[in-house]
Amino acid sequence: MLALSRKKSEALIINNNIEITVLEIKGEQVKLGISAPKEVPVYRKEVYIQIQNANEEAVSADGLEALQNLFG
Description:
Blueprint: E1 11-14, E2 18-26, E3 29-35, H1 45-58, H2 61-71
Antiparallel strand pairs: 1-2, 2-3
């Protein structure tokens, strides 16, 4: 993991097309602004984990069995 220090209004550039800017700092909370192309999904980690769990459930034994039946 890369750890960087940034002050308010300072930014990071990732992969030439994603910019993360520190918008505000209040106590222990930091507000970030993220500019990325529309095709790049941006999620809060807790939402990303929920999506991954839902995807795993969708491909559970029942889902896998249904796919196997579909393809013979």
